[in-house]
Design a protein that fits this description.
By secondary structure, this protein is α/β, with parallel strands linked by helices. It has two domains: 152 residues, Rossmann fold; 63 residues, SIR2/SIRT2 'Small Domain' (2-Layer Sandwich). It is built from eleven helices and nine strands. The strands form two sheets. It has a six-stranded parallel beta sheet, with helices on both faces. Strands 5-4-6 form a three-stranded antiparallel beta sheet, covered by helices on one side. The protein is elongated, with a radius of gyration of 18 Å. The two termini are 22 Å apart. The chain binds 2'-O-acetyl adenosine-5-diphosphoribose. The site of 2'-O-acetyl adenosine-5-diphosphoribose (OAD) has 29 residues, from helix 2 and helix 11.
């Protein structure tokens, strides 16, 4: 089997009933959302320690919220791309299909995906720092920075997993169970560096799943993948779909 061959990927998917997809920032790159570690990546311009840790928020909630407000502004101005749209359509193509994302931008849901595990939270959700109540806040720009809980007046924080924090155990448990049970896992647009998300493909492979990676640049996972498609998700996913749609 050729390693870099869309036809081989389509052939593997054609046989599969249980398909899981793990996405990272790269799937939203073609929509215009910055990634974290690429050439213009956010972590090349900003220090995560200043903006995406509980300590940073305790020190300067206004600064942290200004940064998230800026990112919310970018995301509000973009649309899902053909990569997101194809994955949303695949809920109907495969008997069992689930999407696990590290992204917080909400673009998978906007494209129509419903069976979705958001490992790192969602930038449109806010959480009360006093009682952990989660609610939606789609206002762009935010009405007040830092925002406060309308019920108790405590600070609200972004409902996002920061460095040094644990992932929601229910969401993570579901992600590992899906990975252990799938026949094919596609790993799309992630540098595969941040754990535990980066462990999921290894869990899938350990249970015998075929791993298909889509990424323009090699990652730590590339050598482990059964098929590695080097290119853009927004081009390769519709191309695979075109092949699958041919009876
Ligand atoms: P990264 O920025 O680390 O990696 C993005 C990956 O997308 C890179 O491997 C790129 O080569 C690839 N890429 C770029 N354009 C692409 C395209 N058009 N199609 C497909 N792939 C493309 O982002 P993540 O792996 O998602 O955490 O980062 C993981 C986590 O680290 C994020 O969820 C975030 C960050 O700190 C939180 O926000 C909690």
């Amino acid at each position: 089997m050729l390693k870099n061959d869309i036809g081989s990927a389509a052939a593997v998917l054609r046989q599969a009933k249980r398909v899981v997809v793990l996405t990272g920032a790269g799937i939203s790159a073609e929509s215009g959302v910055p990634t974290f570690r690429g050439e213009h990546g956010l972590w090349r311009q900003f220090r995560a320690e200043d903006l995406a840790t509980p300590e940073a928020f305790a020190r300067d909630p206004k600064l942290v919220w200004e940064w998230y407000d800026w990112r919310r502004g970018i995301i509000a101005g973009v649309a899902p791309n053909p990569g997101h749209v194809t994955l949303a359509a695949w809920e109907k193509r495969f008997p069992e299909f689930a999407l696990i994302t590290q992204n917080v931008d909400g673009l998978h849901a906007r494209a129509g995906s419903t069976n979705l595990a958001e490992l790192h939270g969602n930038i449109w959700k806010v959480r009360c720092t006093k009682d952990d109540t989660i609610s939606d806040d789609h206002s762009v720009p935010l009405k007040e920075i830092p925002p406060r809980c309308p019920d108790c007046g405590a600070l609200l924080r972004p409902h996002i997993v920061w460095f040094g924090e644990s992932l929601d155990s229910d969401v993570l448990g579901r992600a590992f169970a899906l990975s252990a049970a799938c026949e094919v896992m596609l790993v799309i647009g992630t540098s595969a560096l941040v754990h535990p998300a980066a462990s999921l493909p290894y869990r899938a492979a350990a249970s015998g799943a075929k791993i298909i990676e889509i990424n323009p640049t090699p990652t730590l996972l590339t050598g482990e993948a059964d098929i590695s498609l080097q290119g853009k998700a927004g081009e390769i996913l519709p191309e695979i779909e075109r092949l699958l749609a041919v009876k």
